[in-house]
Specification:
The structure holds two protein chains of two kinds. By secondary structure, chain A is an alpha+beta fold. Chain A has one domain. Chain A is built from five helices and nine strands. Chain A is globular and about 50 Å long. Chain B is an alpha/beta fold. Chain B has three domains: 84 residues, Roll (Ubiquitin-like (UB roll)); 229 residues, FAD/NAD(P)-binding domain (3-Layer(bba) Sandwich); 119 residues, FAD/NAD(P)-binding domain, CATH 3.50.50. Helix content of chain B is 24%, strand content 28%. Chain B contains eleven helices and 28 strands. In chain B, the strands form eight sheets. In chain B, strands 8, 9, 10, 11, 12, 13 and 27 form a seven-stranded mixed β-sheet that branches. Chain B has a five-stranded mixed β-sheet with strand order 2-1-7-5-6, covered by helices on one side. In chain B, strands 15-22-16-17-18 form a five-stranded parallel β-sheet. In chain B, a hairpin with a 6-residue loop joins strand 19 and strand 20. In chain B, helix 3 runs parallel beside helix 9 and helix 6 runs parallel beside helix 7. Chain B is globular. The N and C termini of chain B lie far apart (53 Å). The chains are: A alpha+beta, B alpha/beta. Chains A and B meet through helix 1 and helix 4 of A and helix 7 of B.
Chain lengths: 168, 477
């Protein structure tokens, strides 16, 4: 029996493990403009990300292949984040000493622009606080999923993949 | 308790006029369009009957009319499947305690000639496979009639709030609930006669002619005569053995989805999910969306069986997934109050000292499905046990025709897979049925080939391997 990858034992990808499947963009690219990152390490029959990309930056050799993003071609439009049925696409953008992470958010309440939110890691741990800078509501999302962009300390860019909205 | 706010669903839209039903004499508020079981559950009634011998309490299990867990006495009539029977103003509902008897004072209804419906193609089941079969058979020129025992079309799509995988032309990126709406719209555009709340009790053959004996709303006999029949009766949830697995609170994953997503009824406060396949993972996410705490997902296998992306969605919300863990027992007085789980070693033995106690009121079983083949069995189709497809399935050819000429199969009743493949199989079976009925031109063969090709592509990845192994054993030339 072949070795079971860690992510299938645990249900999450560590950044180190993610790098085995996806070559991450370099810092220059991350500072240029937002860039889409697929966290999709498993061959499943699914192609909407490649189909919706307006610049054909998402490559798939066959419908079961892993999506590969050509980072230079990616314009940061977030359509892949909106459509991905697995909610597995994110965008990352470095600005100064901050990072902006774009992610799907299908939980109530949907935060408002400017709202402070609790940042959650890939295993749901609270790792800090961030500020919501853009919200694409469900009705405007191409995939019926609300999308939020959250500003956070740069060092958290590769840990935070969800948020919790706490209101009084 | 009823849910009001939800990130995906709008329950106010589906809740009809308020009506009053009576449970053991006590009035309960319900809404038109709700089934009896859902209304009772929303009012806090979670024990539906007691077992005949040992008088153990019984709750819901499948909530789609396939098991006998929710049978109750309704207006004096015993053994009514309350999970698929709609509420009506003034209904009297009682629990069954002893072996139920028909009331002696009641007269049987007067015999009258049953309603007789004739069609080229009769489709049994209005889920993704059945709806696609009906749409495509109709397009190919057939007069089609479709029956389903549930009060609404869509099968299990009506509770799938997640977006589907596949290609966009196969509805990838679209939520299951939306796909159900789209297919229903397509059916409406065509001249397909639809019978809801109509159970298919028998599938018979008389020479070339097929007869489906149906019962509408538990009492009216309806006969469907067809040149061909497509059986798309779906699947039934599996149960696994553990102590107290019959306590109210131990539910099939699908039953919880029916409560929460179809009818907006909160299933409980704290849930343990057994099984980390796609159903268990998706259920965990849906529970979180409905504001229910998921304590953990336990999975006896050493790895997550469903898509990783579904697992990642729930992990980042803080829901633990414990692989190599199993449930040992449920505990509680007349209902689930605790679940005891433990770790397994490589030989599947419980590791002493690893027991964990979860204070939960619901234990969700997401441990697989088995195809519903009863009608196919009855009409004499050849059956084979194929574990890769979920159990006993029928032998068929590449156009989904079984060993009984003119009887077709599609979707989960042909082998457990998923809605995308069910829709493609439905398309193939629907066209195939129209061809055998002699109403479709041979040009439709091309459409069948296209769908076969799409199925092949969809199944070509690692997740399709097991299904392909299974299909080798049942698909004949």
């Amino acid at each position: 029996m072949s070795e079971i990858p860690q992510y299938l034992k645990e249900g999450f990808l560590s950044v180190e493990e993610l790098k085995e499947y996806v070559e991450l963009p370099d810092e220059d690219r991350l500072r240029q403009r937002p860039v889409a990152i697929p966290e999709c390490p498993q061959e499943i029959p699914c192609t909407p990300c490649a189909e919706i990309c307006p610049t054909n930056a998402v490559l798939m050799e066959h419908p079961n292949a892993l999506p590969v993003v050509e980072y230079e071609k990616c314009i940061g439009c977030s359509l892949c984040v909106q459509i991905c049925p697995g909610l597995a696409f994110f965008m990352v953008h470095y600005i100064g000493n901050k990072a902006r992470v774009t992610m799907p958010h299908e939980i109530l309440p949907v935060p408002k622009v400017g709202e402070e939110v609790i940042l959650l890691s890939r295993v749901g741990e609270e790792v800090g606080k961030g500020k919501v800078v853009t919200v694409i509501p469900r009705e405007k999302s191409k995939g019926d999923t609300p999308i939020i962009t959250v500003e956070m300390p740069l060092k958290l860019a590769w840990d935070v993949r969800a948020v919790k909205v706490v209101r009084e | 308790m009823r849910l009001s706010e939800h990130p995906i669903l709008n329950f106010e839209r589906i809740r009809g006029k308020e009506v009053t039903i009576y449970f053991e004499g006590k009035p309960i508020k319900a809404h038109e369009g709700e089934t009896i079981a859902m209304a009772l559950y929303a009012a806090g009634v979670k024990t539906f009957q007691h077992s005949i011998e040992k008088h153990r309490p019984r709750g819901l299990f499948c909530a789609i009319g396939k098991c006998s867990s929710c049978l109750m006495k309704v207006n004096g009539i015993p053994n009514v499947r309350t999970c698929i029977t709609l509420v009506e103003e003034g209904m009297q509902i009682e629990r069954q305690k002893e072996k139920p008897m028909l009331p002696k004072t009641m007269k049987p209804p007067k015999w009258k000639e049953p309603q007789r419906i004739e069609a080229d193609v009769v489709v049994i089941g209005g889920g993704p496979a059945g709806m696609m079969a009906a749409i495509n058979a109709s397009d190919a020129g057939a007069k089609v009639v479709l029956l389903d025992e549930n009060p609404m079309l869509g099968g299990q799509l009506v509770k799938q709030t997640h977006k589907f995988f596949g290609k966009r032309e196969q509805f990838a990126g679209v939520r299951g609930i939306k796909i159900a709406e789209i297919l229903q719209e397509e059916l409406k555009k065509r001249n397909v006669e639809i019978f809801l709340e109509t159970s298919a009790l028998m599938l018979l053959q008389n020479g070339e002619e097929k007869l489906v004996v149906g019962v509408k709303k538990n009492k009216e006999l309806v006969e469907f005569k067809g040149k061909t029949v497509v059986v798309a009766t779906g699947a039934m949830e599996r149960m696994i053995p553990f102590e107290n697995n019959d306590l109210p609170g131990v539910y099939g994953a699908g039953a919880i989805q029916t409560l929460m997503n179809t009818y907006g009824v909160k299933p409980g406060d704290r849930v343990l999910i057994v099984g980390a396949g796609n159903v268990g993972l998706i259920l965990a996410y849906q529970l979180y969306q409905a504001g229910v705490k998921v304590e953990a997902i336990v999975e006896a296998m050493p790895k997550i069986g469903g898509y990783f992306v579904h697992a990642a969605k729930v992990r980042r919300l803080g829901i633990p997934i414990l692989t190599r863990h199993t449930i040992l027992r449920a505990e509680g007085n007349e209902k689930v109050e605790r679940a005891i789980v433990a770790q397994l070693d490589e030989k599947w033995n419980v590791i002493p000292g690893t027991e964990k106690v979860f204070d939960v009121d619901v234990i969700a079983l997401a441990v697989g499905l088995r195809p519903s083949i009863e009608l196919l069995h009855q009409v004499g189709c050849q059956i084979k046990y194929v574990p890769e497809l979920g159990g006993h399935v029928v032998i068929r050819d590449s156009r989904m025709e079984t060993t009984v000429k003119g009887i077709f199969v599609a979707g989960d009743s042909a082998g457990i897979e998923e809605a995308t493949t069910a829709m493609l199989e439905g398309k193939i079976a629907g066209i195939g049925a129209a061809l055998i009925a002699g109403v479709a031109s041979s040009e439709w063969l091309k459409k069948i080939e296209e769908a076969q090709k799409e199925l092949e592509v969809f199944r070509s990845g690692p997740f399709g391997r097991k299904v392909l192994e299974g299909l080798k054993k049942v698909v004949v030339k």
